[in-house]
Amino acid sequence: MSQSMIWTRVDYEKDGKQNGWLQLPHSVTRSAYGNVSIPLTVIKNGKGPTAFLMAGNHGDEYEGQVALCKLIQALEPHHIQGRVIIIPAINLPAAMAGVRVSPIDQGNLNRSFPGDPNGTATYAIAHYIDTVLYPMADIHHDLHSGGSSLQYLPFASMRQSQDAALNARATSALKAFGAPIGLIWAYSPDSRLSSVAAVNRNLVALGGEFGGGGSVTSSGVRIVEQGLKNLLAHAGIIEASRAVGPYAGPSRLMEIKSRDYYVYAPEAGLFEPAVELGDMVRRGDVCGKVYFVDNPGRAPEPCYFEGDGMVICKRHFGRVERGDCVVHLATDVA
């Protein structure tokens, strides 16, 4: 595959703290030789493991973006042994617009891996992550939240791979992060996802959803801040004494196994949920109803759960189209 056109004056091998930019060439009418300048911080002190931390994969997911800005301010080379690469707004065009997908090309970065160096902006960013940043890293965290359209109970997560040894290392890192819930996503052959691209690089890779509704939740930011200290200590990058322990006791390990955990709107209309985050439900229970305010004489259309579990995610927007996810579940790991 061709070499990335993204370039930077930051030296990944240089000791010290560097704040700079990834420069993505972007030629438009107002700037013929312009770049999209994606902020990048590299903190290095001698030999040791590398942690690659990023947020803003989706631009309207904010807790990770705030927490990484705070980490950039606080973390200094003498605090670490090894290297930390931090990008708080990896999909900068989307982050600056406060939207899920890039306003440049309507690309969803988390559906664009392994990317294309000669593709549009979103695919070029994915390619740089996959071919330049992932190979440098020993441990990775891609920080998400529910964005504008979803609300989540906060959790850190990992995705199962087909490598049992890698799964064990990732599970250990997930427990060390110490979020209230540690979620294990089933293995997916869909290589468009950043998490799948990362495990395909044999990388210990975590994710997570730390809020939602298009807001910044202070509790979500605190979970991320605390968890990142734990993760860096677990990786041996900061001293173990700087870890702060789990946010609210040991993580409750949960999983999402299949499509039956998801409930989708059966019709377009106004969705009234019948459950709240954290509720325990059974297969066949009513999830909610879709109302038709343009035809109020029509009976509302109910939707039902396809399995048992805990409500870990629900839709934030009231208006739905047929096929929108309105709720999804998680179950405890046996």
Describe this structure in words.
With 334 residues, the chain is an alpha+beta fold. The chain folds into 2 domains: 7-256, Aminopeptidase, CATH 3.40.630; 260-332, RNA polymerase II/Efflux pump adaptor protein, barrel-sandwich hybrid domain (OB fold (Dihydrolipoamide Acetyltransferase, E2P)), CATH 2.40.50.100. The chain has 6 helices and 19 strands. The chain has helices at residues 63-74, 92-97, 121-136, 164-177, 194-200, 218-234, and strands at 7-8, 16-25, 35-45, 50-55, 82-87, 139-143, 150-152, 155-159, 181-185, 204-209, 252-256, 262-264, 269-273, 280-281, 286-291, 301-304, 309-315, 319-320, 325-332. The strands form 2 sheets. The protein has a 15-stranded mixed β-sheet that branches. Helix 1 (63-74) packs across helix 6. The longest helix is centred in the C-terminal third of the chain and has 17 residues, at 218-234. The mean pLDDT is 96.
